[in-house]
Each structure stands twice: as structure tokens, then as C-alpha cells.
Amino acid sequence: MSLSIPIKPIVYLHGEPTVRFEKKEVEVMIHHQNLTLAVVGKYSHGRPDIGLLRNAIPKQCGLKADVRIGLLCDRHVLIQCTIVEDFDTLMSKQTFEIKEKNKPYLMRTFKWDVSFNPAEESRFAYGWISFPGLSPHYYGESTLFSMAAAVGTPIAVDAATLNKTRPSCARVKVEFDLLKNHPQHVVIQVGEGDGITTELQKIRYDFKPKYCTNYKLQGHDVDGCWNLKPALRPEKTKDSDGRKVVTAMAKAVATNKGKASNPTPTSTLPSQQAPISTTNALIHAPPTNWITVTRKNKKNKNQNPKQLSKPTGTVSPATGIVIPEPRAIGNTAQVSEIDSSPKNDPPPKFSTP
Q1: Which residues pair with 112 in a beta bridge?
Q2: Roughly how many angstroms between the first and final C-alpha of the chain, as a whole number?
């Protein structure tokens, strides 16, 4: 296309300045800007620097010719191919794993068109369809393209079909609109007049992504949208670090909520003590019999006295009460008593063993 676009006059509609272009002129714009074979790469979970992507995408995606890569917005890059083979390579897969410094970044590819919107994903997708059991005399490229046009725009025929190495099934890559209903069969008629024979050929979709018309995203439809139907969202039991999340515990609590718990029997206690339920917290005796232990360090010097955090004694298995034991002075530690009596009282006397 060597047509040039003239400068358009400004026309005011409802008080707004307006410029009008014809559809043919838009096609000329696309051709002049080398956007006929343009692909959009989307990074939903972060991306490397654009300078690194210019080197990584051609190498890791297996592109053969020069490509121009630029940033459309924070999540989208524009890849302008110069040959059809590179364009087909980028559109042959749903996702590419681009690695930079041993960190993978997932890139999803879409065909660029004039209606591109960063907030929406394209409703057009590339995919393979198969014609199982098709007679081998229909394996010509033009013949298969005629049948594949019932689904969408035919793009290419796979190598096994062209080389006749898999006569059991023919495969064609097509571009189809995800918002349209796609047929499951195509009718093949042969003959003229009253001698027409009819054959019903099955169409098998190797892969066809779903499209959510509410959020304009590929990968799911309205019936499987988690935002519209939160009950469909799978419950997470562990986070990214493998730890249990609170929601799983909350669900267990909600499940057991309202169930009557079995009362714990009361323990049998001596007659001089009042009954205490074993469901109560562990009860310690009043901390009246504390001891202070003085220890020696490596230089055989006394350290600061440290008060124990628990009174010495045995715990009754029935009541959970700590019964203090008589204090004794050992040979390995110097033991002294904390005097809790008034200062006027004489210190208690102990008999040494």
C-alpha cells in the first residue's frame, strides 16, 4: 500500500473538535506503522526491564528475524515482527516463560488490533482444530482452509498434514472469535444436481480458551468467574511458605460451632480441700518458698543471684497443686533463704544434715 493519507479538516460536532478517517485509511496506517504482524505480550505478575526484554524475548522465544519491542504500558509490551514465521511462533503458545537472572516471568501473547485496550484482553485467539478421520484427498492447503473457515480465519496447516505423515487426522491453525459459537461439525457436499453426496465431518478443538464478557479476560467464562461467584474460588489451606492460613482454622471452628462439649468430671480430692474442676487452669501454691541459687562462672567467681521462676516441689496429679518440698543445702551450690518476715522477727533456724 503506497496510498498517502491527506490532512483532515477539523469538524465540530456538538461543540467538540472531530477528525474523521475512513476504514481504508486505517488499514493504510497499520501497514505504514508495521503493525500488521504485531503481537502484545502481557506480564500479569511483574516483568524485567524493557532493555533486558529486547534481548531475552527473541532468544528465548526462538524468533529468527529482527523484531522491534517497545513498552505499551506497565504490563504490556508491543512486539512488531517482520516475518510471518515469527508472528506464528509467538501466537502458537498461550504463554512463554522469559527468564532473567534465573527468575521466570510469564508472558501471555495476544494479537494486536486497533481496538487494543490495556484494561481488556483481546477476544480473538489462535488455536488448532483437527478433522479426525478426514479422507487424505482433502489434505490440500486450500481445501483445508475452506473447511476451517467455518470456525474462523485459517492461518496455517501443520507439517504432518502437509507432508502426509499422519493421514488419520488433519490439523489447521485458525484465529477465532471467542464470543461466537463455534460449530462441532462441517458438512461436505460433493456433486451436482441430484447426484450430490453429503458427508458430516467432525471438528475437534485441540485448545480453545474461554472468555469472560464481564471482566474482558481470557482463561475463564462468566459461569466460572470467581469474582462473580466467590463460592467457586478454591479454598487455600496453605500460604506460599507452606504455613497454614487462618481461614482453614476458622472453617473448622465454624463447623464445630454449636456442638455441645462433654463436661469434664470433677476430681476426687482429700476431705480437707474443696473440689476443684480439672478443667481449670493449673493452680500453683502461693510463692512463699522461693530459693536463691548462686552459681559460679568459668573464672570461679560468683555471679549475680538469680531467682527461680517456679517454686520447688511436686505437682499433685489430681489437683495440679504444687506441694513444696523441704529445702536442703547442697554441696554444689550456695543456697540462702529470702526473708519474707518482718525485720523485727529473728531469722529462722535450720538444722544442717
Answers
A1: none
A2: 115
pLDDT in tens, 97-140: 999 888 999 998 988 988 888 877 777 778 889 999 999 999 99
Query: Residues near 70 by Cβ (< 8 Å), separated by ≥ 6?
Result: 50, 77, 78, 80
Q: Are strands 217-218 and 211-212 parallel, antiparallel or unpaired?
A: antiparallel
> Which residue is listed with cell 482454622?
249
Residue 40 contacts residue 72 (beta carbons within 8 Å): yes
Give the cell for residue 123.
477476544
As a whole number of angstroms, the distance between CA 219 and CA 31 comes to: 31
Residues whose CB falls within 8 Å of the CB of residue 314, separated by 6 or more in sequence, listed in order: 322, 323, 325
The three-state secondary structure class of 279 is coil
Element (H, E) at 190: strand 185-190
| The amino acid at 65 | A
E strand or H helix at 246: helix 246-256
Do 150 and 230 touch, CB atoms closer than 8 A? Answer: no
Q: What is the DSSP-derived secondary structure letter of residue 45?
A: T
Cell numbers at residue 116, please?
Answer: 487494543
